[in-house]
């Protein structure tokens, strides 16, 4: 599903080019749940950004479902991203002036894959799936952190993406809530969606299919 | 409605303070713009409507005396649709115990049948009976009279008579009486006889039958009419053809409207800057949300659409607010101008195109203002957006300020440094505030410069009093009357005549000489000729090229600045003067700003042709009150059988200028007040934006021990600092700008330079205003900031 070949990313800094990722090669089959771990600054976010087409590699190739994403022009890449990738962020990033349901409908409104009249029912279905249906018509500010992150996950699922990228989705949650959120990702992966999650949680073994550990921009462990 | 539209609308509500500020800023600009456009539409329509409704004469011809047969003969021509005889007589009216003002009497044959250049009835009686006079509505103040009063007038022989004021009329084509400092009276032929004047009519006002707006056609018709009149034994001595179909003040109104329009656009531009500032800030706070929307699949266009829709919504609100305000402004402005130009406005209706234009501009301006910030924000990559905490653009080079401001306490230093964090914003704010300052200081500079220039013009005149006679009179008698009058230090007899650079084959009769006090409109080719002793002591011309007249000169001429372009220096000047076409040599140019075209020639020229005659007397007094001398002298002149028709002191001459100056001045001051207001609004928005964005920072400051007073002071210092910087900018720009612009404009209009004065008090006043604006504009935001609690501030996002 996800094929990374010779992926390198250097940032231009005042002190010269800084390599954040060095020659990363990785294959992730569809429907796997992958945990990306490593010390701070090891290149986890950089890796996810490259897979999501948010950033461009210095060299190497990212192919998702057989498509080399970085060869696409920017406009097309944005549309592709909307259809194929779902993002979940550490700080939830719900739009404060939209209700919970509207936040979930927003990606559908952008991509227009789902017919207009089916968008709200679908949003409610997704909210039900992540367990916050009763919050549908509230504004995000009225929700707890865990609830907000569930909404963010529902939003990431809006357009039925084939890949979910989650950068420290549990970083702002207590361990009980964090475990529940990870469990949610497990269920999503079971549904056939590939899930990459950056996390510092321990006791991941039971729940994930593969652990990729980065150090200084290189993969030091890739264990299924 | 889809989620993006929900967001568009709800954001506007969510950011209420900024929304209101944006709407205010835009509607201020739109209101100014619509006021200007509507005034333009109303005035151009009403000015011509009122004027054309009076059936203005196509031309006026002066002859000896007009009888019914002559009028009938002219009217029988197919080219002439109507002809009416009139007369204008110069007299004086008593306005105080020893105060006389100019009275222009218009004689109409039949008030029941005025068809050309009609008068509008206003108040009181109509028509005037014998011994009665109607007064132009604007002239009541000048005459210091009201309906029912009996006024004393002096005819051209200087005899006193009384007339009863029975009504008021509106004479649309007449310049505002107050500006001219003259009274316009309307009487019948019988009344004219009663006040001791020959009861005849000498002007013929004609109306051409077709092509009324074709000046060439009118000239051709006038030539025919002239021929008919002369065949009938009535020599035509003067012809006046006004610009067809145009109110006499159309050009002046056009200039004023142009200035006002420029100003309106300027205000629109400034409010656009404020709106851009606000929208940029709104977009900056949206950076993260934009990143999120991009991450969930929003395209740049889709995202930009949300924000552009918002700005359209803001524009619509602004238009709704601005149109009533603009219409009110247009009404006030039109009324003011109409009063100044002495015409009536029958309808304030504003054509649809103005509304459409204003609505379009109102929607487009915020859209344009939003375009850059929106497009720029939508362009930020997701990664940047998601890592940004909304404090980007924070690259502050502190070293320069630190060094420049060494020794200032840390909170104050912090405040001043803060003001440069959003550099574009603060620069735009400074620019708006400074614009107000430039306008204000330029207005004061312009006023002083004009007054100084005018002082210079009057300083050239060393006489205190000028007496004009009805015709060339023996200097012997004039001098005797002067000798018999106490209080005169020096007297000279001059000759005032008229010349033209346009030659007519037919000589015009010479008895028109001396009938110009400067008030009657003459065509653009003519100018005033003043013959004075070459060694005059009563005139000290400011020669800017060549030389002054000197004893021994005879065929030499000194022209003033207004005439210099037509009669160039060192060239022979052949001119039409009375029946002859003498040639002079232009030896010098005298600087006379504000003055119509005048040529000075030596009296020797006239002495050779009319020895011992003069028609003008210039006097220097020894300090005796001027009114005393005036009345004594007049009595003595009349004893000599002379006919003084006007006596004017320098103060009388200046009155009209000062009125015009006052009006320009008020206009400029109002403009700068409006711009200062806009600038203040701009500063207020900047300060509240700065505070809003720094809520978290304020919280940190409070957390580490800053008292509310310190936070408050910091923000007020920041505002005042911006005010002072804008003052410096304005001061630096205002002087050269006002000097340059006024010099160019003045040179174009008056053909001479303006004395440039820098008003120091203006600079200081603006400093005070800038500081006050800075303090006032930051007061509320500062108060809000200092009151917010630590927890609230730290939690704010
Ligand atoms: N825009 C950038 N410019 C320069 N260097 C950068 C930039 N972004 C990241 N880096 C550097 O690249 C390296 C990898 O960063 P990255 O954000 O991928 O780390 P991370 O593993 O996600 O760390 P964390 O766990 O703290 O989020 C770091 O050393 C970081 O300093
Ligand atoms: Mg990271």
List the defining traits of the structure above:
heterodimer; A: 224 residues; alpha/beta; 6-stranded mixed β-sheet; 4-stranded antiparallel β-sheet; 6 helices; globular; B: 797 residues; alpha+beta; 11-stranded mixed β-sheet; 6-stranded mixed beta barrel; binds adenosine-5'-triphosphate; binds magnesium ion
Count the strands of chain B?
Answer: 21
Which residues of chain A sit in consecutive blocks of at least 5 with pLDDT less than 50? none
Beta-strand fraction estimate of chain B: 15-25%
Give the % helix of chain A: 25-40%
What quaternary form is this? heterodimer
Per the principal axes of the C-alpha atoms, what is the gross shape of chain B?
elongated
Task: Write up what this structure looks like.
The complex is a heterodimer of chains A (224) and B (797). Chain A has 224 residues and is α/β, with parallel strands linked by helices. Chain A has helices at 44-51, 74-84, 100-111, 116-130, 145-156, 175-190, and strands spanning 2-13, 16-28, 33-38, 59-64, 67-68, 85-88, 163-167, 194-198, 210-215, 218-223. In chain A, the strands form two sheets. In chain A, strands 6-7-8-3-9-10 form a six-stranded mixed sheet. Chain A has a four-stranded antiparallel sheet with strand order 2-1-4-5, covered by helices on one side. The longest helix of chain A is centred in the C-terminal third of the chain and has 16 residues, at 175-190. The radius of gyration of chain A is 17 Å and the shape is globular. By secondary structure, chain B is an alpha+beta fold. Chain B has four domains: 1-55 and 273-388, no CATH class; 59-240, no CATH class; 393-461 and 654-797, no CATH class; 462-653, no CATH class. Chain B is elongated. The chains are: A alpha/beta (224), B alpha+beta (797). Chain A binds chain B through residues 49, 52, 54-55, 75, 78-79, 81-83, 86-87, 89, 93, 95-98, 102-103, 105-107, 109-111, 116, 119, 155-156, 158-159, and chain B through 2-4, 6-7, 10-11, 14, 288-289, 291-300, 302, 381-383, 386. The structure holds adenosine-5'-triphosphate and magnesium ion. Adenosine-5'-triphosphate is lined by residues 11, 13, 18, 20, 38, 40-46 of chain A. Magnesium ion (MG) binds at residues 44-45, 167 of chain A.
């Amino acid at each position: 599903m996800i094929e990374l070949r010779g992926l390198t990313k250097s940032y231009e800094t005042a002190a010269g080019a800084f390599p954040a990722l060095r020659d990363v090669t990785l294959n992730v089959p569809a429907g796997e749940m992958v945990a990306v771990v490593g010390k701070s600054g090891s290149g986890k976010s950089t890796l996810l950004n490259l897979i999501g087409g948010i950033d461009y590699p210095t060299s190497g190739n990212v192919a998702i479902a057989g498509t080399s994403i970085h060869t696409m022009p920017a406009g097309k890449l944005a549309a592709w991203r909307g259809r194929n990738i779902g993002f979940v962020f550490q700080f939830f990033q719900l739009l404060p002036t939209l209700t919970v349901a509207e936040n979930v409908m927003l990606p559908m409104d952008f991509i227009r894959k789902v017919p207009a009249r089916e968008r709200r029912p679908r949003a409610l279905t997704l909210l039900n799936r992540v367990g916050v249906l009763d919050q549908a018509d509230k504004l995000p500010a009225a929700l707890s952190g865990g609830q907000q992150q569930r909404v963010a996950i529902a939003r990431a699922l809006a357009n039925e993406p084939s890949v979910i990228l989650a950068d420290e989705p549990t970083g702002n949650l207590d361990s009980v809530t964090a475990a529940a959120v990870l469990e949610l990702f497990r269920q999503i992966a079971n549904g056939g969606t590939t899930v990459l999650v950056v996390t510092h949680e321990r006791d991941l073994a039971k729940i994930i299919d593969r652990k990729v550990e980065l150090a200084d921009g290189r993969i030091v462990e890739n264990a299924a | 409605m889809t989620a993006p539209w929900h967001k568009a609308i709800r954001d506007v509500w969510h950011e209420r303070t900024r929304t209101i500020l944006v709407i205010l800023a835009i509607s201020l600009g739109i209101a100014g713009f619509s006021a200007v456009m509507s005034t333009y539409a109303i005035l151009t329509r009403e000015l011509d409507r009122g004027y054309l409704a009076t059936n203005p004469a196509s031309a006026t011809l002066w002859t000896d005396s007009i009888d019914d047969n002559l009028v009938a003969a002219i009217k029988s021509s197919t080219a002439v649709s109507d002809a009416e005889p009139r007369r204008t007589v110069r007299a004086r009216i008593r306005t105080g115990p020893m105060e006389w003002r100019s009275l222009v009497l218009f004689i109409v044959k039949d008030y029941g049948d005025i068809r050309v250049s009609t008068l509008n009835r206003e108040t009181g009686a109509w028509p005037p009976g014998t011994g009665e006079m109607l007064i132009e509505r604007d002239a009541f103040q000048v005459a210091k009279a009201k309906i029912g009063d009996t006024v004393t007038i002096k005819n051209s022989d200087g005899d006193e008579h009384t007339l009863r004021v029975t009504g008021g009329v509106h004479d649309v084509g007449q310049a505002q009486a107050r500006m001219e400092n003259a009274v316009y009276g309307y009487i019948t032929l019988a009344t004219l006889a009663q006040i001791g004047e020959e009861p005849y009519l000498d002007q013929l006002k004609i109306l051409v039958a077709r092509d009324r707006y074709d000046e060439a056609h009118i000239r051709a018709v006038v030539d025919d009419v002239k021929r008919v009149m002369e065949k009938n034994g009535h020599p035509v001595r003067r012809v006046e053809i006004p610009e067809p179909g145009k109110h006499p003040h159309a050009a002046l109104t056009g200039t004023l409207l142009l200035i006002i329009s420029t100003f309106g656009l300027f205000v629109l531009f400034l409010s656009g800057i404020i709106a851009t500032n606000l929208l940029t800030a709104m977009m900056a706070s949206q950076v993260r949300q934009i990143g999120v929307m991009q991450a969930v699949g929003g395209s740049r266009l889709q995202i930009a659409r949300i924000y552009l829709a918002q700005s359209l919504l803001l524009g619509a609100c602004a238009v709704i607010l601005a149109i009533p305000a603009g219409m009110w402004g247009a009404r006030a402005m039109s009324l003011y101008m109409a009063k100044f130009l002495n015409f009536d406005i029958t309808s304030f209706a504003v054509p649809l195109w103005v509304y459409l234009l204003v609505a379009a501009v109102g929607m487009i301006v915020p859209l344009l203002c939003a375009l850059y910030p929106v497009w720029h924000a939508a362009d930020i990559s997701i990664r940047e957006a998601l890592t940004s905490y909304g404090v980007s653009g924070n690259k502050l080079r502190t070293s320069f300020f630190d060094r420049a401001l060494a020794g200032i306490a840390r909170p104050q230093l912090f405040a001043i440094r803060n003001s440069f964090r959003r550099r574009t914003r603060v620069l735009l704010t400074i620019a708006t505030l400074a614009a107000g300052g430039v306008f204000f200081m330029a207005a004061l500079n312009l006023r002083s410069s004009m007054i100084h220039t005018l002082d210079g013009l009057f300083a050239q005149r060393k006489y205190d009093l000028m007496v004009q006679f009805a015709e060339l009179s023996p200097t012997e008698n004039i001098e005797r009357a002067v000798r018999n009058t106490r209080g005169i230090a020096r007297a000279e007899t001059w000759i005032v005549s008229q010349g033209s650079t346009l030659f007519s084959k037919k000589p015009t009769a010479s008895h028109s000489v001396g009938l110009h006090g400067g008030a009657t409109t003459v065509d653009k080719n003519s100018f005033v000729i003043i013959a004075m002793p070459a060694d005059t002591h009563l005139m000290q011309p400011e020669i800017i090229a060549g030389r002054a007249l000197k004893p021994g000169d005879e065929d030499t001429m000194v022209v003033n600045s207004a005439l210099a372009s037509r009669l160039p220096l060192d060239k022979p000047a052949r001119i039409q003067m009375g029946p002859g076409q003498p040639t002079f040599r232009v030896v010098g140019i005298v600087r006379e700003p504000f003055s119509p075209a005048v040529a000075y020639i030596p009296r020797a020229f006239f002495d050779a042709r009319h020895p011992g005659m003069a028609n003008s007397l210039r006097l220097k007094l020894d300090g005796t009150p001027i009114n005393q001398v005036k009345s004594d002298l007049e009595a003595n002149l009349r004893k000599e059988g002379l006919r003084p028709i006007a006596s004017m002191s320098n103060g009388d001459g200046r009155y009209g200028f000062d009125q015009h100056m006052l009006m320009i001045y008020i206009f400029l001051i109002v403009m700068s007040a409006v711009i200062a207001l806009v600038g203040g609004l701009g500063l207020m928005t900047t300060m509240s934006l700065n505070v809003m964005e720094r809520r978290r920072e304020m919280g940190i400051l409070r957390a580490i021990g800053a008292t509310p007073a310190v936070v408050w002071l910091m923000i007020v210092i920041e505002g005042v600092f911006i005010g002072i910087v804008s003052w410096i900018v304005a001061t630096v720009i205002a002087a050269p700008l006002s000097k340059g612009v006024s010099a160019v404009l003045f040179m174009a209009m008056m053909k001479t330079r303006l004395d440039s004065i820098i008003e120091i008090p203006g600079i200081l006043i603006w400093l005070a205003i800038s500081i006050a604006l800075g303090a006032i504009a930051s007061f509320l935001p500062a108060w809000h900031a200092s009151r917010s609690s630590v927890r609230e501030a730290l939690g704010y996002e």
